[in-house]
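input
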Amino acid sequence: MNTCPGCAKNFEHTGYAHHLAQTTNPPCAAQLQFSGLFSESEDADLDGLAEDGDSDGLNGGDADFTGDYFGYYDEQDLEWPDDDHDELPLESDGEDEEYHDTALEHGWERPADPVQQDIDGGDDFENLDNSDALSQPHPAEQQEAEAPLGHQPIVEKFPRRHTGAPVHHSRTTAFESYKNILQGAENVWAPFESRIDYEVAKWAKLRGSGSTAFSELLAIDGLREALGLSYQNSRELNQVIDQQLPCRRPRFKHEEIIVADEAFDVYSRDVMECVKALYSDPEFSPHLNYAPERHYADADKTIRMYHDIHTGKWWWSTQAKLETKKPGATVIPIILSSDKTQVTMFRNKSAYPVYMTIGNIPKEIRRKPSQRAWILLAYLPTSKLDHITNKAARRRTATNLFHACLRHILEPLKVPGEDGVAMASGDGVVHRGHPIVACYSADYPEQLLTTGIKSGECPKCDIPHKELGSPHFPVNLRDLNAILAALSLVDEDYDLWRRACQECGIKPVFKPFWLDLPYTNIFQSITPDVLHQLYQGIIKHLIEWIKEACSEAEIDARCRRLPPNHNIRLFLKGISHLSSAAAVQF
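output
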């Protein structure tokens, strides 16, 4: 550890070198010549030393490199670079991120292993080491290739003029409605008495310590009176938040669902109230999309662009169906997601959450957890049904339980999805919204559970298991009409129902939740699982092949040299050391 005499701050050894090289503080800069650490910018000083004869032949053309011409180092300055040493200064001076990036970019790097070349290419491969063979593209060629990236897409609006048009304008916005609900609306800090009262409550909930510590802090004699707080402890603060602040999200309700003579607890919110809460959020109102569009990269409209749900084919085709029955409709795509999660390491405690959002919110907002564009819709039962001894009956009951719960939760979407309902956005504009289930995001086991498809088969297409991955076999979505006709036989003839489901390639599921949802094709709604199907199924194996072919050091070196760009994640330490990676990284 080193202490800079110029600013009296403590640094690790590598951080001290970067501090002296980049500092603008004159006392710190004066220490550079006494530190024994010379950067590339000090070549002139080395040349000056050579003129005085102190360089041991540095100015003599061919030097005998038997010593260290770049200063003297201690053992601690030559530590092996690894992840256990912090390269940042112990006391931040506002440049932590810059130090960190510089340390990664200019850190030590193991040289690439030689790669055996077994290529008979004649003269074309004799001069691979020539710099001409590795020359960079001409600036004019690069500019021509990048020119289309700066152009705005050609946008084609939906041909019906009244598509997504407002029905009327409300007299109040969401902010005004929120203010009218508050008690003491003349006070801008209501339900708190003052700004200090609000700021302390905000700190206690977002930045403070635990509830007990906060209560003990307020118990200090004279503290609450000096600050003018309206609450005496954490319990009273929680009561103010829960009872006096209007809740913009619907509250949970507890219900019991009976399947196979067994009652199961389900905690859920009203799905229509969740849709209205997202649609009427004033933070989202400037960004909502109300109608489908087609985006093209060229003026001839031959290169289609897909970057959000309103630019896709589903919204356009669904809007066309609605316009034939209910002109002037505003589609509200419902996006659902579920994932059974292990909560504890012991005793096998698990939770089964179901989340939802709406496709009118752009994906740049939906993907950020801080924007709160997703709502926890329900907690499904996690019972293992141990009281059912037969394994086949247990699996069948678990499937029916899943669909029974979601069918009950999503039932309020049926009538509004068909006929529409008045939906006011945060700016007070009212549209006739049609909430329709558009996407269901889940991993492969839950995709099979949702669609009722057998394991090992595609949950979207009717391609046989043996032909998966074949480039010659035709791929088509499963016939929804035939499947719906087969499922409708459950109340007529049980044996006929089972045979019809088997012929359609699905399991005999008792009334799936998507059976009666309007304009919903569950097989089209299933989205790819980026983590398991794309990363672990493709990218992970591809990385292993590349590392085997080119060596880990070569791949890491190339990753370090990627230029910064939009929407590209940089791995300044390479990718060979990654034991696990999130889906968003690829």
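quick obs: The chain has a mean pLDDT of 80.
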